[in-house]
Specification:
Length: 377
């Protein structure tokens, strides 16, 4: 620390030392029944107040198409791993069941368990289970998935439940990170097949169901609620009216941030102002995280970092949400495998591409989608 920067700190310590050590009797337990003076002094010297910062990192649809099964998983998410590992909570939408053999891709997915192990090894410690593909192998596939997740060390899941884990204990999922209680509320618009059998739950986009989860979050003392809906129209860059109405409803119900998935493309973002004056950020869709999709706009993606702080006085503040643009490269484009990259780390590095035209595609897609969605303005 430089001498000039040390001067305010030293002066602050002398002032606080004088306030506490000098007229000690004035601050004795007998005489100070109101801590307001202490709080005012803390606010006068914010640099001297310990602050814990918590980051929640969220990515979109982690998919496993048949052609991805022919490749080693290693490169898929390795560039996101340091972001996931450095965050306090890292969330991935797992867009498949672990339904057993035969392993299949679209339209009815079933992934091997080692793919879930791989995603966890990249630093993701919360799996979202409420999506339209979770029932692709029926109730037996759902049970296998949730039982496996429940047995994974260091991994939690939410959005669904079966007889292994009580629904109310993980829906919402309450995470205590550095003294900040964060509630994750995950639900889906529906399934591609029938629903689960009795004794199992996949949370649906029904207001009475979601309102109950929100109420449980508040009753548990959650400081911050993140709603994670699986919703919207596939391949459409703008949210629809139902998403907009639901975003407003979620905000009024107590959501502090809304981050969506399902459309397989990035959608627009906004803020919803609630009746009590809060401004709630809404990211309608992060798009994919890794997949074999090649339709226009499906390889451009987002990762969201939600930042919170907790002061010495226990006050929890929302610091903001940061979005990073991602690009899913296909085999033969950047490497011989699938690899999702953080675009800002590869801008200006066209020479790294095996197929430089894919770099051009990435930059053109970024400009096109950013303009259409208004993200980054």
């Amino acid at each position: 620390m430089s001498k000039l920067r040390a001067i305010p700190l030293i002066l602050g310590l002398f002032v606080i030392g004088g306030l506490f050590c000098g007229p000690y009797k004035a601050f004795s337990q007998e005489k100070v029944k109101d801590k307001s003076m202490f709080k005012k002094m803390i606010r006068l010297f914010p640099p001297l107040v310990p602050v814990d910062t918590v980051n929640v990192y969220v990515i979109g649809d982690v998919m496993l198409h048949k052609s991805q099964m022919d490749k080693e998983y290693g490169p898929f998410l390795e560039d996101l791993s340091r972001y996931a590992c450095s965050a306090d909570v890292s969330v991935a939408n797992m867009e498949f069941p672990l339904g057993g053999k035969p392993y299949t891709g679209y339209p009815s997915f079933s992934a091997p368990t080692d793919y879930a192990d791989y995603v966890a090894s990249m630093g993701f410690d919360v799996f979202l289970a409420a999506n339209n593909h979770i029932m692709d192998r029926g109730t037996p596939g759902l049970d296998k998935t949730l039982d496996y997740y429940a047995g994974m060390k260091g991994v939690r899941f939410t959005g669904a439940a079966n007889k292994t884990v009580a629904d109310s204990t993980i829906n919402p999922l309450i995470i205590n990170a550095k003294g900040i209680k964060i509630a994750l509320v995950n639900f889906t618009y529906g399934f591609n097949t029938g629903g689960p059998e009795e004794g199992r739950t996949v949370h649906m986009m029904k207001k009475e169901d979601v309102a109950e989860m929100m109420a449980r979050a508040k009753a548990a003392g959650a400081h911050f609620i993140i709603a994670l809906p699986h919703w919207g129209e596939e391949y459409v860059l703008k949210h629809n009216s139902r998403q907009g109405e639901w975003a407003k409803w979620l905000a009024e119900e107590g959501a502090d941030v809304v981050v969506g998935s399902h459309p397989h493309v990035v959608q627009d973002t906004t803020y919803v102002k609630t009746k009590d004056g809060r401004k709630v950020p809404v990211v309608y869709s992060l798009g994919n995280a890794v997949s074999n999709m090649s339709l226009i706009n499906t390889r451009l993606e987002l990762a969201a970092t939600i930042s919170l702080s907790r002061t010495f006085l226990g006050e929890v503040k929302f610091l903001g949400i940061h979005l990073d643009w991602l690009w899913c490269t296909l085999p033969g484009k950047l490497t011989d495998s699938y690899k999702t990259v953080v675009i800002k780390e590869y801008e200006g590095k066209r020479d790294l591409w095996k197929d430089p035209s894919d770099y051009d595609n990435m930059i053109e897609s970024l400009k096109r989608v950013a303009k259409a969605t208004g993200i980054g303005k």
